[in-house]
Design a protein that fits this description.
Helix content: 25-40%
CATH architecture of the largest domain: 3-Layer(aba) Sandwich
Distance between the termini: 40 Å
CATH topology of the largest domain: Rossmann fold
Structural class: alpha/beta
Number of helices: 14
CATH class of the largest domain: Alpha Beta
Number of domains: 2
Order of helices and strands: EHEEHHEHEHEHEEHEHEHEHEHEHHH
Length: 366
């Protein structure tokens, strides 16, 4: 198939990834290409050019409109809308078999556009007012929508998930997150360093539990970093920087437990899956999709409870490292994810009704 992938524009679609959405889109392009599809990535012009790239805007917008993503800035909105409108026009005229929309923009959701190109839209964030109505009004026989977890889908449709919407869990290549049979007794945390990701809670819990902790990831909120993270670094608490995938997998794999501290309705939690693939059990907050992702591979506690999180670290350390690895191999592999994408593309192209069978649950009942 000729597939257009439309990306979010805040950061480049290139390693080292700013976050899970960038990793998702990059691996989707790479994986579909490896499966023989003709893929064009529509993203910022400073994204990875090893594949076919059609720039939506010249550079990612965090470089030209820093810190304005959630501020309702009129200049940023006009800049991004102009880029997406032109890109959607090129996609409509480009002879593509399907569009996989990962943009978080309302423009690809318009029915006049989905009537021209079969579309699969993957939602990557909790519902918010600027997008909610457009998502709800966009379902047509040639448009499929995915959420990353059952909790995520319920957040968008609390009164019942409609036909045409399905759960598409993220997937990883387990070979790039190799299993390590033994840890060194330390804890590790990864992600965007921002308040909603909760690294300050991880620091407090690690100190309570008496474990060394290393934080990895880009500093997204400098004020938050300066006030609530940096002052607590030193001794057993360190910042390891923003590493690429190969280096990060080695750093994560040598630890003994992964701290997962979402303070928002986390739609999925790709960082937890990556750590689990290395063999790390998880201690974290039961927020968003965490329970669906972690399952028997960790221990979860109420969000913000640092004392309970410290206790959960001890309980998680008792889980054999083979358990989290096996959960990833069973539920969250890249091949499983890509096969499901191809099924959705076929449904969108044919304008089929959704499959009658329910989505396979992520949380397995014993």
């Amino acid at each position: 198939m000729r597939i257009a992938l439309l990306a979010h524009l805040r950061h480049p679609i290139a390693p080292p990834f700013a976050g899970g959405l960038e990793a998702y889109t990059w691996h989707l392009a790479e994986g579909l290409t490896a499966r023989g599809h003709d893929v064009t990535l529509f993203a910022s012009g400073d994204s990875d050019r090893r594949g076919r790239l059609d720039p939506v805007i010249p550079v990612h917008h965090e470089a030209t409109f820093p810190g304005l993503e959630h501020r309702g800035d009129a200049g940023l909105k006009a800049h991004v809308d102009a880029g997406y409108a032109a890109a959607c026009d090129r996609i409509a005229a480009g002879g593509f078999d399907v569009l996989h929309n990962n943009s978080l923009s309302r423009l690809p959701l318009e029915r006049r556009r989905t009537a021209l190109v079969p579309t699969v839209t993957s939602l990557h964030v909790p519902p918010y007012d600027a997008l909610r109505w457009f998502v709800h009004e966009s379902l047509t026989p040639g448009h499929r929508i995915t959420a990353t977890s059952q909790a995520h889908a319920r957040g968008w449709w609390p009164d019942g998930v409609p036909p045409g919407v399905s759960v598409l869990p993220n997937g990883i290549d387990p070979a790039t997150w190799p299993f390590q049979a033994q840890g060194d007794g330390s804890a590790v945390w990864c992600g965007r360093i921002a308040r909603v990701k909760g690294p300050h809670h991880a620091i407090a819990a690690a100190r309570r539990a008496g474990l060394p902790l290393t934080l990895f990831g880009p500093i997204e909120e400098p004020d938050y970093w300066g006030a609530e993270v940096a002052p607590h670094l030193g001794g057993p608490i360190r910042y390891g920087g923003h590493c690429d995938g190969a280096a990060l997998s080695q750093e994560v794999g040598r630890a003994s437990v992964f701290l997962f501290t979402p303070c928002w309705d986390e739609p999925f939690g790709l960082v937890a899956v990556e750590a689990m693939a290395c063999g790390l059990p998880v201690a974290g907050f039961a927020m968003g999709a965490a329970a669906e992702v972690v399952g028997e591979a960790g221990r979860l506690v109420p969000v913000g409870d640092e004392a309970a999180l410290a206790s959960a670290i001890g309980a998680a350390l008792a889980i054999p490292r083979a358990v989290p690895r096996a959960r990833v191999l069973r539920l969250f592999t890249r091949e499983r994810w890509l096969e499901r994408c191809e099924e959705l593309y076929a449904q969108a192209r044919a304008g089929l009704s959704p499959m009658p069978a329910p989505n396979p649950p992520i949380v397995e009942k014993k």
